[in-house]
Amino acid sequence: MDTVMFHDIRREHFDLPLDRFRLTFDDGLYSHYYYYPCFENRAGCLTFFVPTAFIREGAARPVFSGRFRDYQKSAAYAAAAFIGGDWSCFMTHEEVQVLASRPNVRIGAHSHWHDIILTEVHPTKPKPASPWRLQRFAHIPAAVLETMSIRSRLAFQGHEFRDGRLVARSEAQWEDYIKRDTESCLAWFDRHLQRVPSAYGFPFNEYCPKLIEILKSFGFGEFYAGSAVSHPEVIGRVDVDKLSAEPAGPAAQT
Q: How far apart are CA 175 and CA 207, in angstroms?
């Protein structure tokens, strides 16, 4: 059975043959909690990957009772959070706790900070950087950004911009960042859910052998990324919005 990845949920998703797939949800969005009643009777396990720094204090909000919410692309809610400081698109502590108590739900890790960095490593299928990413580096000269790529701070060693110039992170600094991020994530799980997650969804679906090696040392044993995987221990997923565009084939029918 193939695995599907959700970000924000919209009405059209419920017209898809979701019962053919394992379902995973990235980014810890309020819509995941809001629409849970639509998945409550599903027999298969639902895995929600939460970036723990995005989950803020607050009570549980209303859930779906017939009214569909406005849909937001990931670039829109990322801009609202990172640039505007509005974290309302993400679940509260209490909402994650409610989901975690459900028998068909598993809460997985999606890092703590879910942050980005500049790197000379460019994507194999380049596309323009989201405006929110560029705004995060608005203090950096445009000429520098033209030669760099903005990627996962966990998956790439990358460069910091300090004192008017780019400075490469050392291997030790990069490794230290991965460990601090993971320790902060696990501390959140212990404090708010009293459990240790075993599944990890990579931020931005980006990973590398070093990141996997360190995560395994913390006890993680199940890893998820996007559709193009290059490591035998990583489970690939298809984005739910691609399902309606793809013809039904043997893989989709398993």
A: 13
CATH: 3.20.70.20, 3.20.20.370, 3.50.50.60, 3.30.470.10. Which one for 3-114+174-242? 3.20.20.370
**How far is 81 from 133, CA to CA, in rounded Å?**
12
Q: List all residues 6 or more positions away from 128 whose beta carbon is below 8 Å from its beta carbon.
A: none
- Bridge partners (DSSP) of residue 105 are 46
CB 92 within 8 A of CB 55: yes
Each domain of the chain, given as residue ranges in start order, spans: 3-114+174-242
The per-residue pLDDT for range 39-86, each reduced to its tens digit, is 999 989 999 999 999 999 999 999 999 999 999 999 999 999 999 999
- Nearest CA-CA partner of 13 in 239, 252, 249: 239
